[in-house]
Amino acid sequence: MKALEVSHLQVNFGSRIVLSDLSFSLAPGEIASLLGPSGCGKTTLLRAIAGLLQPSAGTIRLGSQLVGVSSVVLPAHKRQTGYVPQQGALFPHLNVARNISFGLDKKIYSKQEIADITKEMLALIGMSGFENQMPTELSGGQQTRVALARALAVKPKMILLDEPFSALDAELRNELRSDVVALLRAQGTTAILVTHDREEALVSSDKVVLMRDGKIAQMGTPEDVYESPSSPSIAVSTGDALVLDAQKFSNGSISYAISPTVNQEMPSESGFVVIRPEEITISKAGAAGVPATLIQLDYYGHDAMLVLKIDNDEKLIRARLSGAIDFKVGDAVSINHQGPVRYFATL
Amino acid sequence: MPVVADVISASQTPSSKRGLASPNFALNSAVALVLAFTLLPFIYIALRAFEKPLPEILDLLLRAKTLQVLGTTTALLLIVVAVNIFFGTLMAAGLHFIRLPKAHLFILPTILPLAIPSYVFTYTWLALIPSMSGLFAAAFILILTTMPYMLLAILVSLRRIDSSLIEVARTLGLSRTAIFFKVVLPQIRSSISAGALLSGLYVMSDFGAVSLLNVETLTVSIQNMFKASYDRRAASVISILLILASIIFISFNEKLKDSTAKENISKRLMAKNTRINNSGLKVVLLLSIGIYTLLAVVIPIYVLISRFIGNPNPIDFARLTETAISTISVAALGAFIALLISAPLGLLISTHAGKYSRFAERVILIGHALPGVIIGLALVSLGSKLGPLYQSTLLLAFAYALLFLAKAVASMTSALQLVPSTLKEVAATLGKSKSRVTTSVVFPIALPSIGLGTLLVFLTAMKELPATLMLRPTGMDTLATQIWSYASINRFNDAAPYALLLVLIAAIPTFLLSVPRNPGEKVESYQ
Predict the structure, then answer these.
(1) Phi (first) and psi of residue B506, to 5 degrees
(2) How far is CA B471 from CA B180, B322, B389, in A?
(3) What is the pLDDT at residue B230?
(4) What are residue A146's phi and psi, to 5 degrees?
(5) Which residues in chain A touch residue B20, judged by CB atoms under 8 angstroms apart?
(6) Mean pLDDT computed over B412-432
(7) What is the pLDDT of residue B514?
(8) Which has the closest alpha carbon to A35: A230, A217, A171, A157?
(9) Which residue of B has its CA nearest to A160?
């Protein structure tokens, strides 16, 4: 049984179609990322799943329960979906403990049980002893942790995270993200993470859902979407990518600016190839490969991004190099492509 | 259709076509009921007025006396509003932009006159200069009275201006004067217009000051007609004129407002070192604050205290206490009723923007234009049909609630709007129904602001004079009516203890209002 099944979902804002014919599903315990530029509809999809807005067509099913069709909607407060919005949105008038226990119904849980769950949640997020702090006294990262604990405390069918880390600085962001993902995995919670950060999407999830203009452009495991993009423009949204003009020949071989082989026949079709910068290798001038000149070097510490100009051509190639760099700007070099040739007829 | 059936049984609330945010039936009905009550006085006044034959109505409206009174009212209104806009804007801008040590201490004395009603101002100045009388004297008093409304409105919006806008303008080479006109003024235009609205409506509905200074405005005419001849139909005709004048003033004011201006809720407050540090300007600012404080606080309080001390007659403390208690209780009851009936309106306007809520807002705004004398007249006229309610404390409290409903609704709406919608959504995903979200999230967060708004209504109700004079139960006095009855026969010494007590009580909420705080700051600052 699926934990979540969205089929042919459409959402309109007035006359504008925000989501159209959108289908996907999640297995229990699966973590998915919704990745796309702002305005592509990822938050809208999340809100439709949470029951915060009404779809115009299609269905949403949580487990075996149908929760959303266009004519009737199970309201948000009966869906048992945990929701962690941007920056947490803690209740400013309640302390940490009462924020976490906010969703625990006093008719179902005894006072002692509520206290126990709160304690357990605080321990889970590594914030034991913060019971009586007010939200204003917490750092951004702590606020996000408490918001997550508040959502998990009610044992939701699934958790929806809407760019929860976007307001944090890079270091804290990475640390908190891996904590949260580890926590969700340990709890076996099905989750959807909305993000516009491509690395965040790849590193956190079992399934990446790439969205464009209210539709799913591609969906698959992080490796799938990174290694086998469905189009050059999709390739760009999951990581740095070089898009080069290419010619396809009748025998099936493909030629492009830095292709290992050069074909003398007339090409039967022209298109594009997509290359990841880390698939480019660089060696000293004179070695086998395409001669080029290094014109720019951006050093990031853990790796470096090199911009190379192919001699006899105006084409610029970007390459990623890790480890020690023994080139400097102006050097003549040879470049090779060692990786899959991803050919596309159109962009 | 088994699938659809299981959704319906689980939800029991098929949502309407208008989406999830459509207001529920109970809220709509509550609002409709409140609106009906608000409109009741109007309808009644109109019905009474048109009991007169049309030629008589026209005769009454077009006679020289009526036109003269209308002219006086308009002149008074224009003078007060113009002076308020000019000096209010300059003083507020000075207080905001010029660097002063402990700046908020300089704001307090300019806000303090809120605690002093116009009739107390008039009587203290009359005690000092007995010959004071006429249009300009009334304008002087009403400027002193209403200036704080202007200052408060402008100061609040000045605080919301993002100081980086000003810094950017400076780096683009604009002089400070140019920045004031091109950057600051456009952003405070709406609040200048709001301040003008408040002071203008105060002038139109004022009875105490104008009456003591022998200036006949529409409000005074109505009260006189009501008192002298008990010709309530004639009074109703003049009331309609006053309501029309108020509506014209409000709609003119609406035009001034910049409807496209979006509230810029900026977290960047003005840094100390960006304030102007010019000694010449400082002297001018301190001088104007000093003069205003002297005229509107020091002199009135001095007169009150010296009259209080110099009073040869013994003070009847039992009567003073009794009057204070009845004033506080009836004003508190009025504020409480206003709080209760403003809640559904605030909820509707803050969460369900639409045609219906806009209509409700308009009706409430018209209610704002309703001078106390008209509510009084309507309720007195209805009185005979109200049975035991007539001349009861409850009816007077109800009149206060109707009179100050616009204030209550405005503060309720802005308090509720400060609650971020994500908080409501999170609460919903945690299993709270709409009504539970309202009670456990929205109201607790909005409570401080709602409390402050209620306090404001209480303060205003305590000072109310014309409706109180008409509607108070026989034998009951409020501080306002006591001050009035002594002052109108020049027994200033006897009025002093009542006036001092009223000012003292009213100063407490005024002080709270002047403390610079933004109820939303806490919510915003950590998000």
Answers:
(1) -70, -20
(2) 48, 18, 11
(3) 62
(4) -65, -40
(5) 51-54, 73, 75
(6) 87
(7) 64
(8) A217
(9) B429
The total of other beta-carbon atoms located within 10 Å of residue B241's CB is 19
Residue A118 CA to residue A137 CA, distance in Å, equals 19
For residue range A58-83, list pLDDT tens digits in order: 999 988 888 877 766 788 888 888 89
From CA B162, how far away is CA B155, in angstroms rounded? 14
In the prediction, which pLDDT does B346 show?
Answer: 86
Give residue B56's pLDDT band: very low, low, confident or very high (50, 70, 90). Answer: confident
Q: Are A158 and A189 in contact (CB under 8 A)?
A: yes
Q: Tell me how far apart the alpha carbons of residues B213 and B138 are, in angstroms, rounded to a whole number.
A: 6
Chain B residues closer than 8 Å to A12 by CB: none
Distance, CA of A56 to chain centre: 26
Helices B492-514 and B317-351 sit at what angle, rounded to 10 degrees?
30
Distance from the A31 Cα atom to the nearest Cα atom in chain B, whole angstroms: 19
Distance from CA of A64 to the nearest CA of B (A): 10
For A329-341, letters b (16+ CB in 10 Å) and e give eebebbbbbeeeb
Q: Return the SS3 of A65.
A: strand
Say how far apart CA B103 and CA B61 lie, in whole Å. 50
Q: Where are the alpha helices (DSSP H) in chain A?
A: 42-50, 96-100, 111-124, 140-153, 170-187, 198-204, 222-227, 232-238
The confidence score (pLDDT) of residue B264 equals: 42
CB B407 within 8 A of CB B457: yes
A242 backbone dihedrals φ, ψ, rounded to 5°: -100, 130
Point out the residue among B11, B20, B423 whose CB comes nearest to the CB of A53.
B20
| pLDDT, tens digit (0-9, with 9 covering 90-100), for A162-186 | 988 887 888 888 888 998 899 899 9
Which residues of chain A are at the B interface, by a Cβ-Cβ cutoff of 8 Å?
47, 50-54, 65-67, 69, 71-83, 85-87, 89-93, 102-103, 105, 135-136, 138, 143, 147, 150-151, 154, 156, 160
**pLDDT mean across residues, chain B:** 81
Pick the most confident of B219-223, B311-315, B520-524: B219-223
Nearest residue on chain A to B525, judged by CA atoms?
A136
Residue B429 touches chain A, beta carbons under 8 Å: yes
- For A216-243, write each residue's pLDDT tens digit: 999 999 999 999 999 888 898 888 888 8
Q: Which of A50, A67, A92 sits opposite B445 (nearest CB)?
A: A92
Indicate if the pLDDT at residue B272 is higher than 70. no
Compute CA B266 distance to the chain's CA centroid, rounded to the nearest angstrom: 26
Is A243 in contact with A235 (CB distance < 8 Å)?
Answer: yes
**ipTM rounded to 2 decimals:** 0.77
Say what percent of chain B tops pLDDT 70: 88
Among A82, A91, A156, the residue with its CB nearest the CB of B441 is A91
Distance between CA atoms of B143 and B88, rounded to whole angstroms?
10
Q: What is the full DSSP assignment across B472-516?
A: SPTT---HHHHHHHHHTTT-HHHHHHHHHHHHHHHHHHHHHHHS-
pLDDT single digits (tens) B10-40: 333 333 333 444 557 778 888 888 888 888 8
d(CA B109, CA B100) in angstroms, rounded, equals: 15
C-alpha A141: how far from its chain's center? 20
Contact B6 A135 (CB under 8 A): no
What is the arithmetic mean of pLDDT over A319-325? 82
Quick check: B379 pLDDT over 50? yes
Spatial CA neighbour of B329 closest among B400, B380, B403: B400
Taking the C-alpha atoms of residue A43 and residue A2, their distance in angstroms, rounded to an integer, is 22
Triad B289, B304, B475: Cα angle to 5°: 125
Residues B429, A51: C-beta atoms closer than 8 Å:
yes
Contact yes or no for A93 and B444 at CB 8 A = yes
Angle at the Cα of B236 from the Cα atoms of B232 and B241, rounded to 5 degrees: 150
pTM: 0.73
